[in-house]
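Hi there, hope your week has been kind to you so far. Please have a think about how the structure follows from the sequence. I've dropped the whole record in just underneath, so have a look:

_____
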Amino acid sequence: MKTVFPRISLLSLLSLSTLLWGQAAATGNAAENAAGDAAAGGTGAVVSADTAAGWRPLFDGKTLNGWVERGLNGVFSVEDGVIVGTTKIGRENTFLCTVRDYADFELELEYKVPERMNSGVQIRSAFNPSKKPLPLLGVPPLPVSAADAAKGKGAGKGARKDGKVFASPNHVYGYQVEIEFRPGRTAGIYDEARRRGWVFPTTGTEQDAAFIKQGRDRSLFKPGEWQKLRVVCQGDRLRTWLDGVPRADVRDAASATGFIALQVHSAPPRDAGLQARFRNIRLRPLPPVAPPATPEETAAGDAAAHSAAR
């Protein structure tokens, strides 16, 4: 018996091959897209845009991985995608610190605090684990006010009579972007545990009075509501914004790098249990600022430009 095979034209074979290849390609692309979306947390387009712009999340929304607590234990936790810091009775401030240090960067986060709570965000900070004050070589004291100068305090704020600045024992120290309604210095910059006081605004000045007046305006500071804090550190220039409103802008060279930290301040018994909340914490590194040219470098550049023009 002779087996008869149906005739299949070359055109039919090509059409079938094209169809099968297209189905396989579609299946492969779907698998790749699904894998990419899963890796991006299901928000591929948004995350990719943030990543392309250099943003990196500091908080995964679920755990405190990448952070370490310094001070009292058990103050910080995660609830519903938010870092929660709860005040405890005691004399010790507590900080949740990133395990990594950052130098030049832009930082954004959202926070919510009750009116009586004192909190803040540390930038370019460090930790002194010793039981003794730590001498900080190269940290300049802040200029003394006219009132302090009149009292004979000429060493500078935060400095001893010999002009040296020290960090407090067993304490986080460095710049702190303040969060508190009274007296009204939210988004001001305080020098935590270096005893230099307010870096911006300078205490007792017209600048300080205007800053506090703005900070007490409830259209800007909103206790119990989510607010956005933005911080830019580049070189010796430190700037802050609260809900897009410029607040601090100052130059200070005490710290060039350090960790980021969230603070819960020590509290009296009546304030035990108050909670500060933080979310959407992200950071992007910025390029370092070139130091200003020395007179010799400026002269050499001028000479080279003059020679090239001839």
